[in-house]
């Protein structure tokens, strides 16, 4: 599961982002294992009209500790700021393919291309170019968010990674997951049968001061209800602490057979 949170402040105010990569369990096969991964750190990009602070915390699923999990992400302070999550498809392990290789290479490529002139600060084009540059066998769902300095957030996603915008304790925007059928999300793949950037859902949201944005893989949204996310954010003013709280909640729920 991967998720990210930031609180927006416009025009010389302060905006924050909290990011946590987590659960990955995707392929057109039944789910068998869940991956949780979170990390914690902070990033302060160059001051602009909108800035943000990022915290991450990484906890791989107990069965996947050795390879550090199957999810990947990157954070960039280019222009207003860019964040992205790729959720590796764990079903590839049944074909003796490391599911983490594709997602990690996809995010590495996206990170290196974020300032490319042809990308033109467009999340959908960034997905296209990063996917085209990825050579590893496998597949992943992905979501990219780009923050303009005027407070506009542009989002492109393929699959069931998601994003929520919380304003004054209410979710005022959410992305919709793309699935062929249950447990088979749209995915960027090394194979021709996968989806492309043309299948991405593209959105634009105007942020206002105090907004909180939560981005993540299905591992967050499958294991934590929207109401629980809102409650955790209300209980933690610090985004890093909020990230840890959501990570722990998602982890506990994912490992609890009663949930």
UniProtKB/TrEMBL annotation:
<protein>
    <recommendedName>
        <fullName>Protein phosphatase</fullName>
        <ecNumber>3.1.3.16</ecNumber>
    </recommendedName>
</protein>
<dbReference type="InterPro" id="IPR001932">
    <property type="entry name" value="PPM-type_phosphatase-like_dom"/>
</dbReference>
<feature type="domain" description="PPM-type phosphatase">
    <location>
        <begin position="56"/>
        <end position="259"/>
    </location>
</feature>
<keyword id="KW-0464">Manganese</keyword>
<dbReference type="GO" id="GO:0004722">
    <property type="term" value="F:protein serine/threonine phosphatase activity"/>
</dbReference>
<dbReference type="GO" id="GO:0009507">
    <property type="term" value="C:chloroplast"/>
</dbReference>
<keyword id="KW-0460">Magnesium</keyword>
<keyword id="KW-0378">Hydrolase</keyword>
<keyword id="KW-0904">Protein phosphatase</keyword>
<dbReference type="InterPro" id="IPR036457">
    <property type="entry name" value="PPM-type-like_dom_sf"/>
</dbReference>
<dbReference type="InterPro" id="IPR039123">
    <property type="entry name" value="PPTC7"/>
</dbReference>
<comment type="similarity">
    <text>Belongs to the PP2C family.</text>
</comment>
<dbReference type="GO" id="GO:0046872">
    <property type="term" value="F:metal ion binding"/>
</dbReference>
<keyword id="KW-0479">Metal-binding</keyword>
